[in-house]
Amino acid sequence: MRFLPTEEQSDFARTLRSLLGAADVPAAVRAWAAGGHGPGRALWDRLAATGLFALAVPEAYDGLGPLLPELSLGFVELGRAGVPGPVVETAAASVLLAELGDETLAKRFLPALGAGGAPATLTLPGAGPYALDADMAAWCFTVSEAAELRLAGGAGGPVLASTDPARRLSLPADGGELLAAGPQVARAAAVAGRWARLLTAAQCLGLGEALLAGTVEHVRRRTQFGMPIGGFQAVKHRLADTLLGLEFARPLVWAAALTTAAGDVAAAKLAAGESSYRAARTALQLHGAIGYTDELDLSLWLRKARPLRDAWGTPSACRAEVLRSRER
Questions:
Q1: Residue 66: is the preceding peptide bond cis (ω within 30°)?
Q2: In whole numbers, what is the pLDDT of the chain averaged over residues?
Q3: Beta-strand relationship, 139-143 and 120-123
Q4: For residue 176, what is the DSSP state?
């Protein structure tokens, strides 16, 4: 069976890769971690101009979607470049509002979300209490255990420390405008949660590929005992194992983008998250002591691996979901 992106989908991914390659993403990440959102927002606007965020918004509300396979391809590139900000949450919020079927809410929020002019953050039951970048998001949506969707008033407390300094976490402000409540909110939240989990898996895949590519380049340049360390058998085996993990995760991500089944999405997140984390450990080991330095851009990617692996579904939660899907 031929299971590859179409030429049009590949062109879209190449466009994003070229755009991000020409941008100084590491500088934007460092500024974002320090609370300076200007460079990151400028990058966000350039991404929005490609139609990336519109892929999560139905055409009826000035979007291009919903097109999860294309969006997943785009998020691989975001992960590869290490783009900061609530990109997953903005897309998931679009899906949540579209799935509600409330025309008034859809018209109020979806056009701006699809255009990329209003970054959003989102918290859902079972996904952790902390909102990403609530201090800069235009909208902070929260869904409670009682299936109430509220528009919170931004961050309700200080920004918390994270392994990845560019992931600025905080608790949403209490209360806020009640937008909807009831079973339809719970159903829409479940769909949005699957999208968030899969798009995070796509980010993990791109992150792992970037870490592997940087490590391969490093072991080609660095010499020891008169030869590149990449020529040593132990190094080759470590890189090969890392590559295999990423290559096995890739078809799971694409399959989940097509089926959107909860078990498939969980399997994709589990495989992509674990393989990217393995790529980070390999990169750190083979770079040696310089891998720990803040000055090296590699550190920006290394710090993302563990948080992304656990965001929108820890390995244990994903394993449990895969098992539940097999019992149905």
A1: yes
A2: 94
A3: parallel
A4: -
Cα separation, 34 vs 189, in Å, equals 31
C-alpha to C-alpha distance for 90 and 41, rounded to whole angstroms: 13
Please spell the DSSP secondary structure of 198-235, one letter per residue.
HHHHHHHHHHHHHHHHHHHHHHHH-EETTEEGGGSHHH
CA neighbor of 71 nearest in space, from 94, 105, 45:
94
Are 165 and 197 spatial neighbours (Cβ–Cβ below 8 Å)?
A: no
In the chain, alpha helices (H): 7-22, 25-33, 38-49, 68-81, 87-100, 103-115, 183-221, 233-259, 262-287, 298-310, 315-327
Give the C-alpha separation, 198 to 14, whole Å: 20
Q: Which helix (H) or strand (E) holds 288?
A: none
Alpha-carbon distance of 111 to 183, in angstroms, equals 25
Task: Assign 85 a pLDDT band (cuts: 50, 70, 90).
Answer: very high
Q: Using CA atoms, how far apart are residues 195 and 192, in angstroms rounded to an integer?
A: 5
Sign of CA dihedral 275, 276, 280, 286: positive
Contact (CB, 8 A) for 312 and 127: yes
CB 169 within 8 A of CB 131: yes
pLDDT number for residue 253: 96
Distance of CA 28 to the CA centre of its chain: 17
CA distance 254 to 69: 7
Q: What is the pLDDT of residues 296-323, one digit of tens each?
A: 899 999 999 999 999 999 999 999 999 9
* Burial category of 227 from C-beta neighbours within 10 Å (exposed 0-12, middle 13-18, buried 19 and up): exposed
What global pTM score does this model have? Answer: 0.96
* pLDDT value of residue 1: 41
Give tens-digit pLDDT for 23-81.
999 999 999 999 999 999 999 999 999 999 999 999 999 999 899 999 999 999 999 99
DSSP annotation string for 46-76: HHHHTTTGGGGSBGGGT--B--HHHHHHHHH
Contact by Cβ (8 Å): 133, 40:
no
